[in-house]
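Folded chain entry
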Amino acid sequence: MTSFLVRRVVGAIVILILISLITFYLFYAVPRDPARAFCGKICPPETLELVRHNLGMDKPLFVQYWLWLSAIFVGRDFTQFGPCPAPCLGYSFATQQPVFSAIVDRFPVTLSLTLGASVVILSFGILTGMLAAWKVGQPLDKIASSSSVIGASLQIYFVGPLVVFFLVDTLGLLPRPSYVPFTEDPLTWFVHLLIPWVVLSIIFTANYTRMTRSQMLEQLAEDYVRTARAKGMSGRSVFFRFAWRGAMIPIITIFGVDLATLLGGAIITEQTFTLHGIGELAVRAVQNTDLPMLLGVTVVGAAAIVILNIVVDVLYAFIDPRVRLN
């Protein structure tokens, strides 16, 4: 297991470097001068050249990338801003604020949204799918299957305003979505993020309901399940003790892949409910041609996805003993 984790960590570092490198070079392919975006609309040519020099943009592109990458580990001194301690992701062209500090301030919002939606997806999606497989062909199975088809066709930007209109504005059952730090008031944090969690998880929950139902029915047809039944084990014991473990392996695998999609959905959800998370930083970075902020958000988002995928891989060993032996 240790060698496996070491290989995954090394691979993750290589992936993050490649992602940052590709993002860095694609940014400069855009026909817009980042130095002018930093300097402003009214910027004399001599001031523009000074800005390019202070930001290191008068150096070759590979040198600029190396300076940015090395600053993450050893920091960097900027002529205009002064020293930037590690991990340094530079300063925003738009706000002149440290990129790392801005991301740290916004990251709890996106993390809370993503993790909360993940709990809803895995809890309700897997539970509903298992119940549908347990009652296959019965009304519960038909209701779950039909609801999953409807849920998979809905979109965040359509469902979000409708849910807020009915549950907040009309019925007053829940407060308007906002973010309150978990450390300040856990209950308020939970209640104010409940609507965004549900809206973000609708599509994914529907997909995981159908996936779980399909995998459970496939496992129930396996030889080891028939053997367990032949030995006299009850259907309930076979279903909940053996079949579900085999069904969870592909589901967890797909969930690891879906984490990137879930993070993208979190960005859309932030825009829908005006939550000030990393998604807002990413959108503004693209609009303002803010290279340091765009790189910082991309690398942090990729790092979060890679780390969560490593956690998912470790979970295999606790669900399937065959993975542990291999």
